[in-house]
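QA checklist item 7 of 12: single-chain prediction sanity check.
[x] sequence parsed
[x] length recorded as 279
[x] structure emitted
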Amino acid sequence: MSALTVRNPLIKVLLWAAMILMVLVYAFPFIYLFLTSFKTPFETLAIPPRVVPSTWTLENYVTALQRPGAGKSFLNSTVTSLISTAVSVALAVPAAYGITRFQTRAGQALSGLALISRMIPPVAIGVPMLSMLASVNLVDTSFGLAIAQTTISLPLSILLMASFFEGVPVELEEAAKVDGCSSTRALWSVVLPIVKGGMAVTAIFAFLASWNEFLFALILTSQNAQTTPIAIANFQTQFGLDWGPMTAMAVLYSLPVIVLTILLQRHIVAGMTMGAVKG
C-alpha cells in the first residue's frame, strides 16, 4: 500500500501543525508530571503553577525510593503482571484456536462471553472476587491478584488471538496433514510459528492491562502484595498529597511501559489494526 502524497505546501504545514498540536494535547499531562517530579516543594505548589522548574532537583526521586515498601511494590507489580500475562496467553492460545477452527456453538458462546466480559466494569466483580480469594487464603498475595487481573486480560487475549488465527489459511494445516502430520503436530509446527508475532502482541497487551490495573489491587491487597499504583495513591500526608515524591514515583513506574511501547510499537499497532481490541 503506497502512502498518500500531499503536494500543496500549505496543506503540509497545516497537517504538521495539527499533528504537533494533537501530540502536545496527549503528551502534556505526562510532560507536566515529568517536570513536576524535578521541582522543589515550593515550586510544586506555586500559584500560578510553573510548568518548567527554575531549580531542578532529584530530591523527590530520592524521597520516593526511600519510602518504606517502594521497592517491594515495584517487585509485586512485576511479579503480578508476569504471572497474569503467562496465564492469559497460555489459556488464550488454545481457546482462540478452538473458536476459530472448529466453529462450534460452545466456541461461539465462549467468544461472545469474552466480548461481554470486556464490557463488565471491574468494580462489579471486585467484591465477589475478594470473597472467592479469601476462601482459598489468596487475599493479599501476588498470585491471587494475578488471578483476578487475568479476568481482565484473558478476554482481551482470546479476542486478539482469534483474530490472528483467522488470518492463517486452513489449507496450510490440511497440507501438513496430507504430508503426514497429526493435528497437534500441524498446530505446533505450522500454525504457531505463523502467529508467534500475534502471541507477542497479545502478551504485550496482557502485560499492560495488568501493569496499569488499580481497582483489583486496591480491593485485594493490603500490605504484602501491594502494587505500585496503590503505593502512589498512598502519598497522602496529614497536610495533603506529597506531590513531589508522588510524581517521581509515577514517572519511575511509567518508564518500563514507555520503553516497552517504543521498542515494540510496530507490533502493537499491528495488533490494534486487527480489530479485536475495539471493545
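[x] summary fact logged: Residues 70-102 form the longest helix (33 residues).
[ ] second reviewer sign-off
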